Amino acid sequence: MARDLRGTKKEKDFYAAFGDPIKITANVLVNLFAGFYNKKTGKMEIAYYPDDLITVTDNEFHGVKPTTTTTGIYIANKAITEDLKVVGYVNKTFSKDVIGKLDEVTAEALKADDITMEQMFHYIDACQWLFGGKLAHVINTSLSSNMLQLPPKAKKLRKEMFDKYSKELNVDNDPLVASKIEKEVTSVALEEMRAKHDPAMNLFDSKCGVDPYNNYKTMFVMKGAVKDNTGLYKTGYKVATSDYDMGLTIEDQAKVADNLVTSSYASGVKTQDAGYEAKKYNATMQNIQLGPKGSDCGTTDTEKITIDESNAHEWGQYHYIMENGKLVRLTPKNINSYMGKKVHMRVPDRCKMRGDQYCNVCFGDRSYMIDVTNIGLAMNIACGAMLNASLKTKHDTTIKSYELDIDRDLLMFA
Q1: What is the DSSP-derived secondary structure letter of residue 208?
Q2: Do 66 and 129 reside in the same domain of the chain?
Q3: Same domain membership, residue 131 and residue 100
Q4: What are the CA-CA distances from residue 21 to residues 50, 76, 118, 374, 392 (Å)?
Q5: How far apart are CA 264 and CA 257, in angstroms?
Q6: CA distance 214 to 177
Q7: For the chain: N or C, fewer Cβ within 10 A?
């Protein structure tokens, strides 16, 4: 779909559509990207595609050098990043990974007072308005004909593997074989679709919630292994080889029906485990707190730590080290100067503050900066992760297998 609009009248018309000063409104985006009926040609047309190539300069985005970008990326930057001077122009597709990185950068900038609370509010509102609001159906990736059927090579491979492993699938109900087939066929299908350079593949490649090895494989490859709640199958699983696109066979309908029990149990009953753990953590940890801001137990007991890429982000979150007898606070701005060096770190487990408290210096400044001093209750974060894992199981009942290596996974504990 991408067209090269650089240096053309259509590129000028694109920038002119926003007005001066530039205002990104729902009407503007709909007029640019939504389909419309052209009475002259009698066809449905779209003025611009999100992957059309354009050139952005300092005239269109302050501080940027002439850069080739796309209309979609430009709009995302104008709506989200322009107000954040610490970010600049992000010339990448705004995938889940990119948004996650922006979340980290803005959070760090807010703690360091590099941006204001109002700028943070604008960032959050802009992301929700642009990516999750009413405009999603206009600017986000849609399905295409390439994605609505299993490609030829993948379809051939599926038949070959179904024939080869007929006994394992239909008699033995082997979940490992089913998992192997659905992964291989789905991978081949994705390669075929990606080779066509279809923009709709961003639905998967953006990693924004659509897992091809769960959603796509169920629709077009096979339902796969379903947990057996009856106890009648030796492997503990039933294998359904039909898919939702062609329709479930009568035999597979009974197997898949059991999946309703598994998914409902995960969200309705299994969540109680996380709730119980949360109550235990609250009961045992609720009295643990941080001392007053600026408190220092004065301990000289430090931990020698080498700063490297694996821990620089963690220790750069406003922790303290002892350097030539003086306290030095590590921050995202100075942590790189300590890369590869061994430092004397003040750490919580060596704090000498009395009672159920940790001093400010041993614990660091980060929790004070976000106004969280009852740190014992923060243990609920782990329970929240357990709860979300149970809830996600309702939507993803895919069987996942892992290959164990004796040398790697077991002997290391000997």
Answers
A1: S
A2: yes
A3: yes
A4: 22, 16, 21, 46, 44
A5: 12
A6: 16
A7: C
